[in-house]
């Protein structure tokens, strides 16, 4: 035991010695590292001192400092979204694939087959030319099947279905067996005049004649359904045609896309376009132009520009319609306002297309969104001068759409308070002499002057034989409302529409109700609301009591399109009811406000309840007047906004329910 204790003691002593030696080594290594770092610092300082001595620096004076500061603080120039040479770069990629012979040599009617397009060679109508050719024949017995097909085709293009039917009946009289081509042309004649019943009846004749429908038969049938606003039936025919292993043609796709855009079904239009692009055909100029219009409806300018560049990749030559649609897409977005006018200049300089009335009307909408009255006056002046020079032959004569967009420019314009001079008008005032008095050079700088100038323009409308429309008078009413001309608003609403025999539409009532909301005019609000209810009753009285299914569907489609045009769809009626309730709430009439909202929801089962955020004026008035019962009923009726989980940490304690 004693020996073991001694050994353990010796072992412990050796371990302690080893630990001491290791500690001393570690300290020595740390010291050496510190010394090396200090040496490196000294070397770096010496090198920097030597470099500063050898280098020769020029003294910077105060002017250099000011120039540097100016360069740093200068604003960054805004890069245009569309480069000034955008169309110039694409012009080389667009190739006109038509041959010179096709461009110079017109095709006569007698040389055409039934599937080729007709080029009118003179001022004589197509149908008259065909009739003259038929009359010049020696006898009716000499006419062949091809002659009858061309005669029916010419009448179809001239939208004369009765004459086409007579030509078709003559085939039986002279023992000429009808072909599938002649039946297709007859179907096309009825489809061009939106006669869906006769188009279907002609399609059924194929079975009686033991003929099998081809791609052109289905194409005419789909065209007729789309023209009659029966889009769902058109898609049923489209799916049935695909089951027969037929490849749909590009005109069929174009008709379906056009029908979707007219029915405001943009997503469905993109679905059809992508299906054609991926599975069937390379899109043509018509398809691309339609999809550019789809982009314009939603303000998707970037997407429109990508499509336009795709046209260049496919070597498709753009038309003036293509440029108008592209400019329209830029006009829908205020941030692309400058680019819209840039495209106008490039369209003229690079492609030689001259702007037409549609182009300038589109640019007026851009001015209204940008609140640029000066540019709008320049556009009007250009159209005005062209009309005075060319008279009835002018392609730029202002119409009702021109003045409608112009009045919206006056409505959105905010006077600056300082007198501004129209530079373009000042430069051109000495060069142009006109019979009709033009606008003054100074842009109006006060609200009453803006309205006075707009009233003067309104008085000039008879000089241009402009047709009065609900949209035109509504825009004229809206400019008085936005420029806060209280007495004039009431006068326009009560007198102008009756003076010109124009019926008010839902948009008129909505803008007038907005006036009542801002002015807390409950009495006028009730008058507008009664007029609006009478308007709806007149539309609802046109009930769908048609006997056949075809007539019923046609009436439903017609009513849907009319509701979109006049602004009384279910969503717009809900918006109108919410505005009326908020207007009454601002006049402390909470009981009637709640009654209006509840009755509108009970009346229409398809109408969705409003969101609570849209009824905040009503809700806040309930809190202000301490009407807890009405507040509770309002919250129960409305749809609550979804709770954002990301902000749940910062939710308020007091809840609205």
UniProtKB/TrEMBL annotation:
<protein>
    <recommendedName>
        <fullName>Mitochondrial group I intron splicing factor CCM1</fullName>
    </recommendedName>
</protein>
<keyword id="KW-0677">Repeat</keyword>
<dbReference type="Pfam" id="PF13812">
    <property type="entry name" value="PPR_3"/>
</dbReference>
<dbReference type="InterPro" id="IPR011990">
    <property type="entry name" value="TPR-like_helical_dom_sf"/>
</dbReference>
<comment type="function">
    <text>Regulates mitochondrial small subunit maturation by controlling 15S rRNA 5'-end processing. Localizes to the 5' precursor of the 15S rRNA in a position that is subsequently occupied by mS47 in the mature yeast mtSSU. Uses structure and sequence-specific RNA recognition, binding to a single-stranded region of the precursor and specifically recognizing bases -6 to -1. The exchange of Ccm1 for mS47 is coupled to the irreversible removal of precursor rRNA that is accompanied by conformational changes of the mitoribosomal proteins uS5m and mS26.</text>
</comment>
<dbReference type="InterPro" id="IPR002885">
    <property type="entry name" value="PPR_rpt"/>
</dbReference>
<feature type="repeat" description="PPR">
    <location>
        <begin position="249"/>
        <end position="283"/>
    </location>
</feature>
<feature type="repeat" description="PPR">
    <location>
        <begin position="284"/>
        <end position="318"/>
    </location>
</feature>
<dbReference type="Pfam" id="PF13041">
    <property type="entry name" value="PPR_2"/>
</dbReference>
<comment type="similarity">
    <text>Belongs to the CCM1 family.</text>
</comment>
<comment type="subunit">
    <text>Binds to mitochondrial small subunit 15S rRNA.</text>
</comment>
<feature type="repeat" description="PPR">
    <location>
        <begin position="214"/>
        <end position="248"/>
    </location>
</feature>
């Amino acid at each position: 035991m004693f020996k073991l204790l001694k050994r353990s003691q010796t072992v412990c002593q050796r371990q302690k010695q080893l630990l001491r030696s290791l500690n001393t080594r570690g300290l020595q290594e740390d010291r050496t590292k510190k010394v090396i770092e200090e040496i490196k610092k000294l070397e770096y300082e010496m090198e920097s001192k030597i470099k500063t001595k050898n280098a020769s620096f020029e003294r910077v004076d105060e002017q250099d400092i000011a120039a540097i500061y100016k360069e740093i603080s200068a604003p960054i120039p805004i890069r245009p979204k569309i480069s000034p040479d955008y169309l110039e770069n694409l012009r080389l990629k667009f190739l006109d694939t038509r041959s010179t012979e096709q461009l110079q040599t017109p095709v006569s009617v007698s040389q055409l087959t039934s599937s080729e397009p007709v080029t009118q060679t003179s001022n004589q109508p197509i149908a008259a030319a065909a009739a003259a050719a038929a009359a010049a024949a020696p006898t009716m017995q000499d006419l062949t099947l091809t002659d009858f097909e061309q005669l029916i085709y010419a009448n179809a293009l001239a939208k004369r279905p009765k004459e086409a039917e007579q030509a078709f009946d003559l085939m039986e009289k002279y023992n000429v067996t009808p072909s599938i081509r002649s039946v297709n042309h007859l179907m096309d004649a009825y489809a061009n005049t939106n006669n869906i019943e006769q188009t279907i009846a002609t399609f059924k004749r194929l079975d009686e004649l033991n003929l099998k429908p081809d791609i052109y038969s289905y194409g005419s049938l789909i065209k007729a359904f789309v023209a009659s606003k029966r889009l769902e039936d058109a898609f049923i025919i489209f799916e049935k045609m695909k089951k027969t292993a037929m490849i749909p043609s590009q005109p069929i796709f174009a008709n379906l896309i056009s029908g979707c855009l007219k029915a405001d079904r943009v997503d469905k239009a993109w679905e059809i376009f992508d299906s054609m692009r991926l599975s069937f055909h390379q899109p043509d100029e018509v398809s691309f132009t339609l999809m550019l219009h789809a982009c314009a409806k939603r303000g998707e300018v970037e997407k429109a520009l990508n499509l336009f560049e795709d046209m260049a990749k496919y070597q498709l030559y753009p038309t003036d319609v293509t440029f108008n649609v592209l400019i329209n897409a830029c006009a829908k977005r205020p941030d692309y306002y400058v680019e819209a006018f840039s495209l106008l200049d490039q369209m003229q300089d690079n492609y030689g297309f001259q702007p037409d009335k549609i182009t300038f009307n589109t640019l007026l909408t851009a001015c209204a969104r940008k609140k640029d009255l000066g540019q709008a006056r320049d556009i009007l002046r250009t159209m005005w001068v062209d009309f005075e020079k060319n008279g009835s032959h002018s392609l730029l004569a202002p119409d009702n759409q021109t003045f409608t967009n112009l009045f919206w420019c006056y409505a959105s314009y905010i006077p600056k308070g300082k007198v501004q001079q129209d530079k373009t008008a000042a430069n051109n005032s000495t060069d142009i002499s006109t019979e009709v008095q033009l606008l003054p050079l100074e842009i109006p700088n006060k609200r009453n002057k803006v309205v006075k100038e707009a009233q003067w323009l309104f008085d000039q409308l008879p000089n241009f034989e402009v047709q009065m429309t609900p949209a035109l008078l509504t825009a004229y009413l809206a400019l008085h409302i936005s420029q806060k001309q209280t007495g004039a608003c009431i006068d326009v609403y009560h007198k102008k529409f009756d003076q010109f025999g124009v019926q008010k539409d839902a948009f008129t009532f909505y803008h007038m109700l907005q006036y009542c909301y801002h002015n807390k005019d409950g009495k006028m609000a009730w008058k507008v609301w009664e007029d609006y209810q009478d308007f709806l009753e007149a539309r609802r009285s046109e009930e769908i009591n048609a006997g056949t299914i075809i007539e019923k569907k046609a009436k439903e489609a017609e009513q849907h399109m009319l509701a979109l045009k006049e602004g009384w769809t279910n969503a717009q009626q809900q918006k109108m009811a919410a505005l009326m309730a908020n207007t009454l709430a601002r006049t402390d009439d909470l009981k009637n406000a709640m009654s209006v909202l509840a009755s509108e929801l009970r009346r229409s089962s398809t109408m969705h309840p409003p969101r609570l955020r849209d009824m905040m004026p009503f809700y806040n008035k309930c809190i202000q007047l301490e009407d807890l019962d009405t507040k509770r009923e309002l919250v129960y009726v409305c749809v609550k906004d979804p709770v954002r989980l990301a902000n749940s940490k910062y939710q308020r304690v007091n809840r609205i329910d």
